[in-house]
Design a protein that fits this description.
Blueprint (H helix, E strand, L loop, with lengths): L7 H6 L9 H139 L1 E7 L2 E6 L11 E6 L6 E6 L5 H11 L2 H16 L5
Helix pairs in contact: 3-4
Function: Acts as a component of the essential kinetochore-associated NDC80 complex, which is required for chromosome segregation and spindle checkpoint activity.
Family: Belongs to the SPC25 family.
Organism: Lyophyllum shimeji (Hon-shimeji)
C-alpha cells in the first residue's frame, strides 16, 4: 500500500490543520500482522510438538529396535559359543573316531592275517584228514578182510570159552559170560570194563559180583586182561553154584 502524499503548506494554512494518519487501517494491519504472527507461532509450536512427538516415537522405536538387535546379538553370541563348543566336541569325537577306526583297521588287518594263517592250517589239516581218511579206509578194508577170515574162528572160540567180548563205546568193552549157571544154561553174566584211563574201571555188572573190586585191583596191578577174564568167569561160577548139601 502506497502512502498518500501530504501537502504540508495547505495543511498548515487550514483553520484546523489535521493530518489523517489512518490509524484504523494501521491498527487493522497491526492486528492482522499480530494474528498472522500468532498463527505462525501456533503452527510452529504445533509443528515442533508434532516433530518432537515423532522424534520421541522414532527414538523409542530405534531404542526398541536397538534393544532387540542387542538381544538378538547376545543370542547369536550364545549360539556362537554353543556352536564353537559343539565344533570342539565334534572335533574331539572325530579324533576319537579316527583313532578307533585306525585301531579297528589294525585289528582287521591282524584278523585277516590270522584268518589267512588259519585257512592255511585248515588246508593242512584237510590234507592230513584226507590222508588219515584214506589210511583209515585202507585199514578198515584190511580189518574187514581179516574179520571175514577170523569171524568163523572167533565164533567157535567164543562158543567154546563161553565168553563174548564186544565194543559198546569208545574205550569200553562188554564182557558176556555164558554157561555159568548149570541150573540155567541160557543165563548170561556181563560187565562193562572201561579201558580208557590209566586205571581200569568196571562201569556196571549184572548180576553184581562180590569179588569184583579185588579182581579189578589185581587187573590194575598186573595189566593182564586175559587173566582178569578167566578170574571173573571163575568168580561168577563160584558165586552162582548152589551150596553143597
Amino acid at each position: 500500500m502506497r502512502l498518500p502524499q501530504i501537502d504540508l503548506a495547505a495543511t498548515l494554512a487550514a483553520p484546523n490543520p489535521q493530518i489523517d494518519l489512518r490509524l484504523a487501517v494501521y491498527e487493522e494491519s497491526t492486528r492482522s500482522f499480530l494474528k498472522a504472527v500468532s498463527n505462525y507461532k501456533n503452527r510452529a509450536i504445533a509443528s515442533i510438538s508434532e516433530r518432537r512427538t515423532a522424534q520421541a516415537a522414532e527414538k523409542k522405536r530405534v531404542l526398541e529396535k536397538t534393544q532387540a538387535v542387542e538381544a538378538e546379538t547376545n543370542q547369536c553370541k550364545l549360539r556362537e559359543i554353543d556352536l564353537v563348543a559343539d565344533l570342539e566336541r565334534e572335533k574331539e569325537e572325530r579324533k576319537d573316531a579316527e583313532l578307533s577306526v585306525g585301531a579297528f583297521k589294525r585289528q582287521l588287518a591282524t584278523l585277516r592275517e590270522k584268518c589267512q594263517s588259519i585257512e592255511a592250517e585248515i588246508e593242512q589239516y584237510r590234507a592230513i584228514t584226507a590222508n588219515l581218511r584214506r589210511e583209515r579206509a585202507a585199514e578198515k578194508d584190511t580189518l574187514r578182510t581179516h574179520a571175514a577170515r577170523v569171524s568163523p574162528e572167533l565164533a567157535v572160540t567164543e562158543r567154546l570159552l563161553g565168553c563174548i567180548v564186544e565194543g559198546t563205546e569208545p574205550e569200553r568193552l562188554l564182557l558176556r559170560f555164558a554157561h555159568i549157571d548149570p541150573a540155567a544154561p541160557d543165563r548170561e553174566c556181563s560187565l562193562v570194563l572201561d579201558i580208557g584211563g590209566q586205571a581200569y574201571k568196571v562201569v556196571t555188572s549184572s548180576p553184581p559180583l562180590l569179588a569184583l573190586p579185588l579182581l579189578v585191583n589185581t587187573l590194575n596191578e598186573t595189566r593182564d586182561i586175559y587173566a582178569f577174564v578167566r578170574e571173573v568167569r571163575a568168580a561168577y561160577q563160584t558165586q552162582l553154584q548152589p551150596p553143597a548139601l
